[in-house]
Amino acid sequence: MTSSEHTPSTLTESLFDLPHPPSLCSAQANWDSIQLALFEQPPYCIPEHVAPYHIVCINAGEPVTLEQTIDGKSEIGNSVAGDISIYPAHLWQTFQWHQDAKFLQLYLEPMLLNEIGSTLYQQESIELLPQSIPHDPVVFQIAIALQDVLVTQSAGSKLYADTLATALATHLVYKYSSRGLCPHQKVGQLSSRQLKQVTDYINDNLDQDLSLAELSNIVRLSPSHFARSFKRSTGIAPHQYHIRCRVKRTKALLLTRRFTIAEISHLVGFSSQSHLNYHFKRLVGLTPTAFLRQ
């Protein structure tokens, strides 16, 4: 079931005037590659429409009876918690459910999957196939991770969301597209010069909410190609490297004893002091206060 024909950046609006707005929405988080919305709705019918983006829908509540027509093919079935449906962009579709429904939706721009298709298969256009899946742990865990970061740390989460969007899009291309599991080529590491350009940029902009597109533009690669090459070069994803650099800078600033922990969290780009404390303890093994006392 899909909720609107608006672009992902305007998810708070609804073409179909759903009874209730999203209870959680990423529209204000400034994400680039993916958007998320959590809906809780009474029985309802969404009329025929075309969505301009790919939608992954997860049943996040009680079982519902769902009637849907996708590209002229009608189905009636029961959907239970954890069931996943994939609705490709640009297909005519209509939905009706007969019980209270709670569903989490992820919205992906077709361009992202096409970039991955170009990298893996040298094919500029990827055909995502409409289907319902009883369970896919990869899709489910990515959705939960995005939901969690939106609830707890939405500010400054752009690079994290971009990375998960690329992982999700790659998984969809592998498992649920017409191409299947036959990648054309492997992605190599960044050159030493490319890696230095990117890491210098990250360290010079620790206080910024960097995006995958912003970093990939530095070395003239697609976001999906860049993310994979960066991980092959460093062993970690770009957003993880960004956090480690912030923690390293935090240690240096703490040792100057010129700033409060709250001031440092702002200087290095953490959304809050608690956000800094969490990552500092996770990577260093001590809280910032304990680090100063040792």
Q: What topology, given as strand order, has the largest sheet?
A: 1-2-9-4-7-10
How many domains? The number is 2
Task: Determine and state the CATH class of the largest domain.
Answer: Mainly Beta
By DSSP, the count of extended strands is: 10
Notes on the structure:
By secondary structure, this protein is an alpha+beta fold. It folds into two domains: 163 residues, Jelly Rolls (Sandwich), CATH 2.60.120.10; 53 residues, Arc Repressor Mutant, subunit A (Orthogonal Bundle), CATH 1.10.10. 42% of the residues lie in helices and 20% in strands. The protein has ten helices and ten strands. The strands form two sheets. A six-stranded antiparallel beta sheet has the order 1-2-9-4-7-10. Strands 3-8-5-6 form a four-stranded antiparallel beta sheet, with no helix packed on it. A hairpin with a 2-residue loop joins strand 5 and strand 6. About 6% of the residues have low confidence.
Secondary structure layout plus pairing:
Elements lengths: L23 E2 L8 E8 L2 E7 L3 E6 L4 E7 L2 E7 L4 E4 L4 E6 L3 E8 L1 H12 L9 E3 L3 H16 L5 H19 L15 H13 L7 H7 L4 H12 L3 H19 L4 H7 L5 H12 L3 H6 L1
Antiparallel strand pairs: 1-2, 2-9, 3-8, 4-7, 4-9, 5-6, 5-8, 7-10
Helix pairs in contact: 1-3, 2-3, 5-6, 7-9
Features:
alpha+beta; Jelly Rolls; Arc Repressor Mutant, subunit A; 6-stranded antiparallel β-sheet; 10 helices
Quick gist of this model?
The protein is an alpha+beta fold and 294 residues long.
